[in-house]
Amino acid sequence: MTPQPDVPQGIDPSVPNVARMYDYVLGGKDNYAADRELAGHLIASIPDGVEALRANRRFLGRAIAYVAGQGIDQFIDLGAGLPNQGNVHDVAQRVHPHAHVVYVDIDPVVIAHARALLASEDRTAALQADMREPETVFESEAVARLIDFDRPVGVIFNAMLHFVTDDEDPAGIVKAFTDRMAPGSHLVISHSTLDDRPADLVQIIRDAYKKASAPMVFREHDQIVRLFNGLSLVEPGLVKVNRWHSDAEEAAKSGGAWVYGGVAVK
Asked: Which of 52, 123, 125, 258 holds its CA 20 to 30 A away from the CA of 217?
């Protein structure tokens, strides 16, 4: 039987959490029975669902390597999720050993594990905050200490905005961050889509996430493009994540078709 992680105060482990479900699918251990049960249902129902999450994680690694290669050495990862292989600071610091990263998540389980991972790391920080309230991020000690908005910064919304409803104004959330970004900054977004996806499988996912900590809001290509708020998308633009700066083997994998990804520059 899989051991249960400690339950922080204020957490209801009976409610599946989207970050912990993602952790379970990627092979992590920081999840509860309810997370595993709902994630298992999705794995059984969606033939390439696991590959979709892995393809998105590989996209993140390529995107961060690209952005760091443009000279960016400070990053804010919004809705960071639980630490896993290929974290933003791991990738960025291969290019810039001095790179600074602030991880932001609303879930205290995520933050507790991130802080344990980063305990000896003075170039990174884990901040418990809600990305839907950007001022709480901007006014935090972690951002004040590690991020200089007078210089270009990389801002990341990796597989997070599809958990933000239209009423919560995802474009407005992104704009709050891009307005702060200096020229030369980069924005990374990946987002689930229903474009070319089987309607029955889309409905299974929607129904499943009604039981979780956040709904899944699929968006079409043009809706996701608008989230970049007029920034200039770098080639090849907004594409399925398995086709962004990938080789032929990666591009041929089917799971990436569930998620669009792109990088833009201000």
From this structure: 125
The residue ranges of every structural domain in the chain are 18-265
Name the CATH superfamily for 18-265: Vaccinia Virus protein VP39 (3.40.50.150)
Angle at 81 between CA 15 and CA 174, to 5 degrees: 105
3-class DSSP assignment, residue 166? helix
pLDDT digits 0-9 by tens, 146-156: 999 999 999 99
> Euclidean distance between the first and final Cα of the chain, in Å?
49
Name, in order, each residue with C-beta under 8 angstroms of 161's C-beta and a sequence gap of 6 or more. Answer: 170, 173, 174, 189, 191, 227
- Check whether 1 has a pLDDT greater than 50: no
Report which of 221, 162, 161, 169 is spatially closest to residue 187, judged by C-alpha positions.
161
Q: Tell how strand 100-105 and strand 124-128 pair up.
A: parallel
